């Protein structure tokens, strides 16, 4: 009885060991099979439709006065009265302050000590000197207050004719930007208030920093808003080319073979075919089609999935599709 029981126990142990080995070997084989399995190629459909496309160049810059002008008095003296404040718009020749020369200021101080009548008499005989705005523009800095003395080398006011954005553009993009072309300014301080602008000046001299060569482009707002200030950081979008109502497809739908641009076109009663197309503008995400496709043609865009029946996984680096196109899951038929 004891011998029979021991023999049965050994048989069970051998069976369990054999079963465990089979399970392990089966798991390894399955893992190896799944690991070596090639991705199943699937496709998504995209209906070609018309839309708008714009090629743009992005750059950063700083708000600066186009012409910054320091106003200095012709002689040393003292400010009697300031007629403007910072931010005031002035015209050329406008009186912005009254001043007394050092001699007049000393004489009036002596007259005042003798009484009001004496002071009035000499004030009318010896008139103050006006400080005039040399150009039309905006007062951006007021450096003096009434009663303050200064020399003829001190800047008592600073003004500018108008504000511009000086944007730094890479040398590879400079050829695409033209004088008077449109642009859009967005200030970091006011991101929800874009400002329409135009290219006012292209620099002829380059600046090289850390082996990167850039050119400074002056961008002038069509209308300068009150919140725009000198020194603000700005992002500028330059419009290079635009087209409306043109055929567009996702750029990821194309491939280039032997110098030809191809797309996979779906056919109603035949297998899909590779079609040669001619392209135009591209913004990186979408590309204009000049020849080879017509509106409402359906093209196939390759996706990837692991295993049969697995869900298609979109490439996270692929561009998003425009709202105009109709994209639905499916395979080539």
From TrEMBL:
<dbReference type="GO" id="GO:1990281">
    <property type="term" value="C:efflux pump complex"/>
</dbReference>
<feature type="region of interest" description="Disordered">
    <location>
        <begin position="308"/>
        <end position="333"/>
    </location>
</feature>
<keyword id="KW-0812">Transmembrane</keyword>
<feature type="domain" description="CzcB-like barrel-sandwich hybrid">
    <location>
        <begin position="70"/>
        <end position="161"/>
    </location>
</feature>
<keyword id="KW-0472">Membrane</keyword>
<protein>
    <submittedName>
        <fullName>Macrolide transporter</fullName>
    </submittedName>
</protein>
<dbReference type="GO" id="GO:0015562">
    <property type="term" value="F:efflux transmembrane transporter activity"/>
</dbReference>
<dbReference type="Pfam" id="PF25973">
    <property type="entry name" value="BSH_CzcB"/>
</dbReference>
<keyword id="KW-1133">Transmembrane helix</keyword>
<dbReference type="InterPro" id="IPR058647">
    <property type="entry name" value="BSH_CzcB-like"/>
</dbReference>
<feature type="transmembrane region" description="Helical">
    <location>
        <begin position="15"/>
        <end position="33"/>
    </location>
</feature>
């Amino acid at each position: 009885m004891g011998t029979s029981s021991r023999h049965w126990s050994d048989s069970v142990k051998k069976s369990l060991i054999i079963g465990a080995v089979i399970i392990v070997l089966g798991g390894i084989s399955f893992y190896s099979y799944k690991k070596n399995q090639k991705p199943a190629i699937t496709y998504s459909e995209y209906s070609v439709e018309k839309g708008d496309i714009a090629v743009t160049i992005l750059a950063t810059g700083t708000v600066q006065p186009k012409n910054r002008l320091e106003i200095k008095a012709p002689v040393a003296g003292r400010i009697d009265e300031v007629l403007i404040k910072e931010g005031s718009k002035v015209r050329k020749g406008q009186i912005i302050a009254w001043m007394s020369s050092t001699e007049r200021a000393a004489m009036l101080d002596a007259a005042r000590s003798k009484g009001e009548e004496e002071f009035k008499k000499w004030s009318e005989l010896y008139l103050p000197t006006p400080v005039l705005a040399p150009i039309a523009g905006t007062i951006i800095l007021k450096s003096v207050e009434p009663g303050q003395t200064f020399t003829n080398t001190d800047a008592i006011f600073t003004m500018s004719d108008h504000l511009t954005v000086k944007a730094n553009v890479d040398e590879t993009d400079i050829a695409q930007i033209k004088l008077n072309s449109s642009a859009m300014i967005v200030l970091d301080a006011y991101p929800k208030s874009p400002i329409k602008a135009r290219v006012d000046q292209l620099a002829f001299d380059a600046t090289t920093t850390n082996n990167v060569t850039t050119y400074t482009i002056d961008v002038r707002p069509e209308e300068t808003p009150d919140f725009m200030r000198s020194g603000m950081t700005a992002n500028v979008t330059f419009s290079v080319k635009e087209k409306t109502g043109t055929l567009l497809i996702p750029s990821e739908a194309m491939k280039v073979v032997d110098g030809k641009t191809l797309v996979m076109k779906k056919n109603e009663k035949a297998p899909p075919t590779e079609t040669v197309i001619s392209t135009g503008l591209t913004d990186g995400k979408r590309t204009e089609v000049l020849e080879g496709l017509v509106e409402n043609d359906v093209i196939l865009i390759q996706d990837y999935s692991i295993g049969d029946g697995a869900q298609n996984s979109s490439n996270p680096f692929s561009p998003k599709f425009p709202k105009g196109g109709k994209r639905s899951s499916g395979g080539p038929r």
